[in-house]
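Progress report, Aim 2. The chain analyzed during this reporting quarter is listed below.
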Amino acid sequence: MPKLLPLSRSFCWVFVLFFASTGLTFAGDQPSIQVERPWMRAVPNAMDVTAVYMTIVNNGATSARLVGGATGLAESVEPMVTTKEGQGLKQVVGMKKVDALEIPPHDKLVLEPNGNHLMVMGLKQHPKEGDQIDFTIKLEPGDQELHLKIPVSKTPVK
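Predicted structure tokens for the chain:
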């Protein structure tokens, strides 16, 4: 049986400093994500877009980013922010595609009507109010995916 050499204290410190400097994160440091009250807005058959709303809670010690989503009902799902230009009666409200929406550590991201949301584009099917659909949200770091069953509704779910 080979003889094992004892590790010196300096070698242990080199090992710890190496892993601390590489940016590796251990399981306890990964974002811990929970999704609350997800729903998709029911829209008429004439429309080819809709939106998905939810609250995403990050219980982890590192930030996460919502980079998109997927569903078999549509061609694409992209994060959008609500924009406002001008003031008073001349204010114009719109939306803009972004690469990601930040979810800070120990905080939440609220996706809601008239606010930030996931835009579901190129609808292939039009689920009706009361239906449940398969929906995936995509998060970074780590190309994480959360698979959800979400209700379709004309109004926010409680």
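The chain has a mean pLDDT of 84. DSSP finds one helix and ten strands in the chain. These observations will guide the mutagenesis work planned for the next reporting period.
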